[in-house]
Amino acid sequence: MTRATIKRATTLAADVTGKFSRYVFEVERFEGGHREVVWDVMERGHSVGVLGHDPVRDEVVLIREFRPGAAVAGDAPFFESLIAGTIDGDESAVTVAIREMREEAGLVLSEPVVIHPGAYVSAGSTSEKVAIVAGRVDTRTAGGIHGKPQEDENIKTVVVPADEFIRRVRDGEVRDMKTLLAGYWLAEHRGR
């Protein structure tokens, strides 16, 4: 088994969203021997994406908000994605999913189930893993602008027919990885 050990870590920056650190690793080479690797890593904890589905109306709840990473990459900075939030301390993914559905869409998430316990967002640059939780919602009252004013959130709730959501996933129109994963899961598990 190939191994890597941390030799040094230096915090380059830190704020309420996490810290940015430079790590020096000693990494075994596949062909034998070792090498030293220097890598910058964003450490911001873990998060949860929430797939809210109304099985009666067969609709999915998404949100539309400003995404700074897309803006920096030169892409359109507003697009639809799953509701999501950060796991604080020892919270469970389900607890966070219920809270975030209420905060970001004003809806109640019922019968939540973890459909993925957590995958790395980008293991080459961040320690963050995103779990995916799916649950039932009633989309009859969905809509409007939500979010926490103290966090300067401005989140628009968007309701999409499940068939349309799955078509967007399959046609490559979804630009957010957690939303893409949840869409493929829904395509396979809808109606079960």
**Rg estimate, integer Å:** 19 Å
Strand content: 35-45%
Output the CATH class name of the largest domain.
Alpha Beta
- The CATH homologous superfamily of the largest domain: Nucleoside Triphosphate Pyrophosphohydrolase
Helicity, as a percent range: 10-25%
Would you write up a description of this structure?
With 192 residues, the protein is of the alpha+beta class. It folds into 2 domains: 4-43, no CATH class; 47-189, Nucleoside Triphosphate Pyrophosphohydrolase (Alpha-Beta Complex), CATH 3.90.79.10. It is 21% helix and 44% strand. It contains 4 helices and 11 strands; from the N terminus they run βββββαββαββββαα. The strands form 2 sheets. Strands 4, 5, 6, 7, 8, 9, 10 and 11 form an 8-stranded mixed beta sheet that branches. A 3-stranded antiparallel beta sheet has the order 1-2-3, with no helix packed on it. Strand 2 and strand 3 (34-43) form a beta hairpin. It is globular. The termini are far apart.
